[in-house]
Amino acid sequence: MQDHPEDNPPKEGVSRRSFLQGAGVAAAAAGISRLPAEALAEERAAADLKELGPGAGKITLNVNGGSKSASAPPSTTLLDFLRNDLGVTGPKRVCDRGSCGACTVLLDGQVVDSCSMLAVDAVGKEITTVEGIGTPDNLSHLQKAFIEKDALQCGFCTPGMVVTCTAMLKENPNPTRDEIRQGLSGNLCRCGTYQNIIEAVEHASRTGGK
Amino acid sequence: MKPFKLIQPTHENEALQARSSDGSEYMAAGTDLLNRIKEHVASPETVVDLKKISGLDQIESDDRGIWLGAMVRMSEVSGHPEIQRRFPAVATTVGHAATPQIRNMATVAGNICQKPRCWYLRHEGYPCIKNGGTGCWAKDGENEFHAIFDNQICSATQPSNLAPVLVAHDAIIEVQGQDGVKEITAGDFFTGPSENPLMEVKLSAGEFVRRILLPAETETSLWAYEEAREKQSFDWAQASVTILLDRGGRKGDHRVILGAVSPAPLRREDMEKKLNGSDDEATQAALIAGEGATPLSQNGYKVPMLQGLIRRAVRVVRSREEG
Question: Is B40 in the same domain as B189?
Fold first, then answer.
């Protein structure tokens, strides 16, 4: 992955905070009389009111245990930020509408569609993608079960499936078939490998991580 | 996606102020708004994010009932033990909406304020009465999933899974606006196109939902929610029936609310009166389901579908009484 060239871009425009802080100084310098309490209240409100964009600004996220930064507009989805700006390409862009689950990542341990939220809304949260679950040299127990049970064909839905099933087993180590189906209900597989995925989850559950 | 400025207020008055600029929209999780921006049917210059406002993400109870903060996630509601115990119909319907991923993201306020899922409304090539054009393309077009009641101005249905059960419970929607906080009962909050074709809920410009009250006085363990849809996940109901019996322990205080068949959840007092405990009450209620319906070219099936759902729901709710 290449570092983004504009890691610390000058923020476009003037934020309300910096404007008001500046204006406060200017007002004081000009000797304009204002009630101190009023000025204070305004500054406090301004300090709280965060404005981003529409241009790019630095976004820092905690991805798979490490801190990663890049510059992107606030309108960037978490999925596009991970893939295009951070080079984390495990989450896949398929429907881009929250219907298929190929972009599934964990946000503080919970499954979410990374295409349907903003990257800035993931700031301060722990993001886990399929890259954080296992590597080719060190596959997770569930990933081995996917191979064992032939739970993939074209493989495009697999990263989302693995993330979803990992979260499912963590929450419920011994799911029934119905619970597995419900847990998988936000992930689509156009090759139709559902049955084998269910068997992989059952296998991983039965063998309990050994 | 068209770029926008994002404002993240932490106080409610800041949100009102930020939203007062032209071309601004409120956003909760964004699961609906971001899709509409991607489809070019919404193009806000400024998005005012409500998630950072303190205090709007809590579930609290007091003597009036259980308050759901606007920014509470759907999965928090379906998994909340007190809601499961006191308002099982609410917990269950929320738990059936969308997908596990969406339920972990989407908020209760966003759910009840989402725009209808009409494919014309969500297509930039079809300027309909809801997005600045005139008339309803679905009325003489592809209307398989559209309304069979009150469908002459606009035939899009209310898509929220939560809406019918909120109406059944007389939930209170607490709304924040320039004039302060006000309370609207769910039955008045969800509106049809004759009131204002641009809106599906009673929110004026700049207003946002603060909290939702599930009133203690409408608690009941006698409930049923039956719905039909084409897929078991990530789909919207083609028709649904919510029944509450003896709300708050008051004999005969029933509610029958039909969902996904009209622009707003449809209360059917005529059916409520049929639920008198007689042997053929389910049949009697089902018989009148289609009264007042004006099906379009492709959605006449919703009348018999409703009849089946009503029979099923009555059976379920009476079995809870015995159990």
Answer: no
